[in-house]
Structure formats: C-alpha cells, structure tokens
Design brief:
By secondary structure, the chain is of the alpha/beta class. It has an 8-stranded mixed sheet with strand order 1-3-11-8-9-7-5-6, with helices on one face. The protein has an 8-stranded parallel β-barrel with strand order 12-13-20-21-22-23-24-25, surrounded by 6 helices. Helix content is about 25%, strand content about 30%. Helix 4 links the parallel strand 12 and strand 13. The N terminus is likely disordered. Helix 15 runs parallel beside helix 18. It binds acetamide (ACM) and zinc ion.
C-alpha cells in the first residue's frame, strides 16, 4: 500500500493558533528508513506533542519491555532534550508500549498516534523495539531549535520482509575494542538489523579466548605489522588484541538487549594461519608458521586428514557454543586452497579411507572439505544449533541442514535454494562495504548500488524463494584499522541495506529513500558518526545515444542544490554553467561538476569522455566475453565512457583465457595511425595486463592485414591499476580495423594461488 499523507496541520495550526502554548511545534514524519509497510499520516489532525510531563508506560514485570521503554526515553532525549519517565501506569497523555501476540509475527508492530497519546504494540518485545526505532526516527530534532517536538497523528503497521537481517564485522584483520563493537551494535539497532555476524578468527589474528588452546590468543592474536599497500608496504605497528570469554558474553548481552543475535564465526578449514602459528601440528606440513602480516588467501590450511585438527575444531566450537547462545554457528568454509591437501599423505590417506571419488563437479579434496565440515556440523547439531557457512560449501556438496551465506555471486543463492537449503545473500559485488573497488563509487551511486540489489531471484519458484531468508552486508578490515574508516564505509550504505532487508519491494523506491535520508543523517550527525559525505556531491550519469552518436550526460545530487559544471577541465564554481537538462557530448570532454548549497560548494565530481574515429561505430567481438563482464556485448568499448577500478561497474569487457578481439566498422575508408586500448589490471583478482596488442585492417571485413604488433611485459609484482596501452604506425587507410588485446597465457607467479587462466579487460578501444 502507498503511504497516504494528508499535509497541512502544521501550517493550519500555526495560522489558527491551535497550539497549546505559543512555542512553535515541529512535527516529525512517520516515513522513516527503513520504510514501514503501511503508513497513514493525518497532518490535518493535531499531533502528539512531547512535553516534560510525557510518560512512557509499560508493564513493570516485563523486564525486556521496561528496557525497551528506557531506550525510547534515551532516544527522545537524544533528539529533543526531554527524557520521558518510564512508569507502570499513567493517567496523563502517554506513550504506551505493550505486547500483542495477535500481530503478524514477533517482529511486527502497530503504532497509533493522536493528540492524546501513542499506542505501540508489538508481536513480542522485539516488535515493540522496532516500533520504538520508528518513533525515534520519526521525531524532529529540536535540541537546538527551541521548538516543541511532536509526532504526527496517524498509524503505522509494520513487519519485516526478511527474518534474517545481518551485518558482519571482521575483527581478525584488525582488532576493535569492546566499546567500539558496542557502538557498531548501536548502529545495527538503528537500522533494524537483527543479526551481528562476528568474524572472530582470521589468518592474521585469532580474537576469541579458547581455554583449552591458550596459545591461540597468546601467539595467534599478535602480528608485528600490517600491510598498507600491495606494493607491498607496511605500517610497522603491532596489531594485537582478543576478547576474553567474559567480554564476548558482555557483547552478547549488549546485543540481546537490542534484539540482536550475535553469530560467531570460526572460519574453517582455511583462513587458519593464526591457529597454525599457535599449534603447527594442525597443518599438513607441520610448519613452522607465522601469523601473516599480508592479506590474501594462503595455501596453509588445517590438515583435512588429521584427526587432531578435527578434534581441535570440535573443541573450539564447544567453547564457542558455551559463550554464544545463537541458533546459527558460522564455520566459514570459504577460500580453502587444496594445494597442501593434494600433497599431504594424511589427507590422501583419509580420502582413500573414506572412499571419496572425484565427480565432474567435485574433486576428491573438495569432498574431503565437505566431510570435514559435516563432521563439525554434527558437533553443532548435537547442541541443537545450526551450521552456517560461505557458499564454497557448494563445491563439495552441501552438508545436511546447513544454511549458506552466498558471497561469491548472487547465482550461488539460486543453486542453494534449488537444493532446498536456506540461504542468506551477501554478494560481494553489492554488500561488501569494504570492497576497495566498490568504495570508489562515489556519491548517491554508492547507495544506489546497494539499494537496487534484489535478494530474491525471479529464477526461483515461490517455494524455492522461501529459502531466501535474508540479506547481509560485510565489512572486512584488511584496509580498515579505525572507526573513522569503518563508519565511512558503512554509513549511510547501511541505511540502503536496511531498506533491502526490511521493506517490501513495492515500498522500495530510490528517490523516496533519498528524500527520507536527511532525517536519518541528522541522527548520524548528532551521534558523531563519520559517515560518507560525498553523497552531497554531483552524480554523473552518461547514457549513450547510439543513434545520435552522442553521449547524454545527466547530473543529479542529494536534496535541493544548484548544480554547476564545466566542460573544459576547469574548476566549476557558482558562476559556471547551471545544469538544467542532460548535456549532449560529441567531443573529447573533461566534465567537472559541483553542487552548491547555501553558497557552499561540494567536492568536484569529474568524468572524462573520449571521442575518436571509432566512437559509436558498430563493433563485434570475436570471442564471447565472460558472462559477468559482457558490457552490452562490447558496446561500451566505443561509447567514450571509461570504467572505474570497480571492474563490475558494467563498462568493462572481460575475457578469460581468450583474447579480447574487437572488429570495428569505421563506415568508410578512414586514415589513422594510432590504436589504443584502455585496460584494467588487478592481478589479485586474476586480471592481468594484455600480453600484447595487434592491429589489423581490412576493406571488406573478411580478409585482414596486420599493420602493427606490440608485445607488452608481464607484471613483476602484484599490480592494481588502470592503464592505457597504445600502438602507433605509419598512417593506413581502411574501413575495418581489428584490434586484439592478447590474453596473458604465461601467467607470472605473483601470489600463493596462481589462476589457471588470466582475464584481459578493456573499457574503450580508440582509433586515431
Ligand atoms: C569471503 O569473503 N571470503 C567470505
Ligand atoms: Zn593434510
């Protein structure tokens, strides 16, 4: 249902003198983030004004409800300065909280507001808690305004779309204090998130005290320095820290008060270097091992054939389950290279004993991992808990009763749901807030990227869809050592996520969300959260008009602001061209734009557009690109737009194991002497430089003659960069040009896991 908004009370009240005192009243808005299911506001009716005598009423014998009422009181204070008293009974106008088990589900709530009071009932105490969050976010911030705060008359009835609404924090790569973890939990509560996935162990740090294995924290929670760039560079600052079991219980209790379940993750059998450094006998080779100071995926993992390693996993999980009462226990299962297992006598003996045979889908070693995970799952099931793991679990076949967190690609969730296993969507392309490429998406686009992801695939039947139980964002902390960076990455994207997790698809609308966002940013500001400010910058959205042969570039920004721009690379200011409609671009252009609000300029947004002889000319690709990097079957290669270092931005064509070869029809015999290819290199993700460029020409599009060839060097170290490769030659005249960026077949050994095939990537091919 659409929200019905009857506006006008405030204006009417101000004009007609309806107010109880002459202090002006500020009325909030019930349309908060996440958008509730049904909202009816009556702005003609008198609102509920909060005064110093306003009380919050709830049953004194319900401790959870009393605590929730205290939260409401503190929230009201946060934004209005008034701190309503929590009482068991009140005759005066009050906010009344109660449980009504007839509501749709435990997390559902209903709010009724009129001038005489607020009635909030929840399907359980958690429902009341979410109603309290909505009340909080509906309040106007009146602390510094001298106005009296009021809630609009109206009704809300609300219920979450997904039962599982999660957020993950990696404390393995960098350690965060108990106090800061609590602050993160406060952020989750504000966004109606109900699961805190606590990634407690990593190669680079073991962070949870295990009484039976004290060296895990004595040795495994310390490393002498951290990598600060892939060059590599290091900070030479020791990174250490772990949570005692008592501290972990404190976090569990803190979260539980906010109706958040803490799910611990012990990542097995990969990502275990810190454990191996502590107990080398758990690895295939016996070590020695060190807690690594570099990031990446390491070939050293727990030995899959050693019963001691399995016992270790069971012992650790027994203690973990003593601390964490959560239904789900996450045991990782991701990124576990099988190199060591293939060569390990113990692993191979185990494979033989278990009679594991390779199948077309699963190697013997993958099945050994399934065996290992299933054995651990028995330990979890014996305590009445459920196993949760990353989607690599699919590789060896899913252990019984396991729930999967799909991170590698949204399709993984389709496979899981079809196997009738429950699945949570955490695709790194949308919900990894730490993804450095993704972090380069600026402004509102960074929010849109999260907001527009739909977790439930249309490929699934309704019955299969019921296995998609939720969505989660993750913050990995390789490059994140402090709260500033944590908050910059997660806020306000967490609010986009919240709407995906909570609101129905019918109620999800990006423009409406952007309009509701300023009220939430007020709360961020009041709390001092270091949220990302580039949402205030200008968003540049080019669209290729292939018929007209031009780019049409739209500019937009957050809230109301004047947009000014230049096309010659100069800095825009208040006197530059004012944006009114999409700009047609038919030449090489360096567009810069700013938003001007109250005389203040935002940061400059910039995008360069190319123009050359192949611009908007028909183009065909000889080899099909990889299905994830098709870029409209290569049409982006001549549209003048460049991709970002986020190679999933839709502008990159990527071929794996084959050359990237494009044939361009220039329309008529044309003279040219240079060809360039704009490429991306990210050897961490198997994207290598082109091995060489080849240029061929033809007059009939069938028989080609080579005019230039240029071999290119292989990288000597890990490389992440955007690079333009070009080749020049004596002027030729031809109608067709065939441009080949050769894939690197001789892949250099740069990291522990060398890919079998390299990618070659391009976003534009130029002819001049
Ligand atoms: C993961 O990102 N390796 C789960
Ligand atoms: Zn082994």
């Amino acid at each position: 249902m659409k929200n019905i908004l009857v506006s006008g009370w405030t204006a009417a009240a101000l004009l007609c003198g309806v107010m109880v005192s002459c202090t002006p009243v500020a009325v909030g808005d019930l349309n908060v983030i996440p958008q509730p299911l049904h909202v009816v506001q009556d702005r003609e009716a008198q609102p509920f004004v909060i005064t110093p005598s306003t009380k919050i009423v709830c049953a004194a014998d319900n401790a959870k409800l009393v605590r929730t009422a205290q939260f409401l009181s503190s929230y009201v204070k946060e934004v209005t300065g008034l701190e309503p008293e929590v009482v068991a009974r009140a005759d005066v106008r009050a906010i009344r909280l109660a449980v009504d088990s007839t509501l749709a589900n435990r997390e559902a709530y209903r709010l009724r507001i009129d001038a005489d009071g607020v009635e909030l009932s929840g399907g359980s105490e958690s429902g009341v808690f979410y109603g309290v969050q909505t009340l909080f976010k509906s309040l106007p911030v009146t602390l510094d305004t001298g106005e009296r705060p009021a809630l609009p008359a109206g009704e809300v009835s609300d219920s979450p779309r997904f039962a599982y609404r999660g957020f993950m924090l990696d404390v393995g790569r960098h350690f965060f204090s108990v106090d800061y973890v609590k602050q993160v939990i406060d952020m989750l509560a504000l966004h109606n998130i109900n699961h805190f996935h606590w990634h407690l162990t990593e190669d680079q740090g073991w962070r949870i005290e295990i009484l039976k294995y004290p060296r895990l924290t004595e040795v495994g929670s310390v490393r002498p320095r951290s990598m600060t760039s892939w060059k590599p560079e290091y900070d030479n600052v020791e990174c250490r820290g772990y949570y005692t079991q008592e501290q972990a219980r404190e976090i569990v209790d803190y979260a539980a008060e906010r109706f958040i379940t803490v799910i611990p993750e012990i990542d097995l059998p990969g990502h275990m270097m810190a454990a191996l450094a502590s107990y080398p006998e758990l690895g295939c080779t016996g070590g020695p091992y060190e807690v690594p100071c570099e990031w990446g995926v390491f070939k050293e993992v727990l030995c899959g054939g050693n019963d001691k390693a399995l016992q270790f996993a069971r012992d650790v999980l027994e203690e973990v389950m003593d601390i964490f009462p959560s239904e789900y226990i996450h045991i990782g299962g991701d990124e576990c290279p099988k190199e060591r297992w293939k060569a390990c006598p113990k692993c191979q003996a185990k494979i033989r004993r278990l009679g594991l045979k390779a199948t077309p889908d699963h190697s013997r070693e993958e099945q050994l991992q399934r065996y290992f995970m299933s054995e651990v799952a028995h330990t979890i099931a014996a305590r009445g808990r459920k196993m949760l793991g990353w989607d690599e679990m699919l590789h060896g076949g899913l252990p019984e009763n396991s729930t999967v967190m799909a991170w590698t690609r949204p399709d993984a969730a389709v496979s899981v749901a079809r196997l009738r296993h429950n699945c949570i969507l955490a695709p790194y392309q949308y919900f990894y807030f730490s993804n450095p490429h993704f972090n380069k998406i600026k402004g509102l686009k960074s929010l849109q990227r999260v907001y527009e992801f739909e977790p439930v695939s249309e490929q699934l039947t309704p019955e299969e869809q019921s296995h998609i139980i939720g969505a989660q964002a993750c913050l990995w902390t390789e490059w994140t050592a402090d709260s500033l960076k944590v908050e910059w990455q997660i806020l306000p994207r967490m609010s986009s996520l919240a709407e995906v997790q909570w609101s129905t698809p019918e109620n999800r609308d990006f423009d409406s969300y952007v309009e509701r966002l300023p009220a939430l940013l007020e709360i961020y500001n009041r709390r001092g959260y270091d949220f990302r400010k580039d949402i205030y910058d200008v968003m540049i959205q080019p669209e290729a008009d292939t018929v007209g042969g031009v780019l049409r570039v739209g500019l937009s920004t957050f809230g109301k602001a004047d947009i000014r721009y230049t096309l010659d690379g100069s800095q825009p200011d208040g006197g530059s061209l004012r944006y009114t409609a999409p700009i047609a671009i038919d030449r090489a252009t360096d567009l810069k734009a700013v938003a001007v609000r109250d005389g203040r300029r935002s940061e400059v947004s910039e995008e360069r557009f190319a123009r050359h002889l192949a611009s908007f000319r028909p183009l065909s690709l000889t080899h099909a690109p990889h299905k994830d990097y098709r870029a409209q079957l290569g049409r982006t290669l001549t549209d003048g737009c460049f991709g970002t270092s986020n190679y999933r931005d839709g502008r990159w064509v990527g071929c794996r194991g084959t050359d990237l070869q494009a044939v361009v029809d220039l329309g008529e015999k044309t003279r040219f002497s240079k060809v360039w290819v704009s490429t991306l290199i990210n050897t961490n993700d198997d994207i290598f430089p082109a091995a060489g460029l080849v240029v061929e020409t033809s007059d009939d599009g069938l028989r080609f003659t080579e005019v230039a060839r240029k071999p290119l060097p292989a990288p000597a170290s890990v490389t992440v960069e955007l690079r333009r490769e070009e080749v020049t030659f004596p002027t030729v005249s031809a109608r067709y040009v065939r441009i080949t960026a050769q894939v690197m077949n001789d892949i250099p050994d740069l990291k522990t896991v060398k890919p079998e095939k390299a990618f070659v990537f391009a976003d534009e091919v130029g002819v001049e």
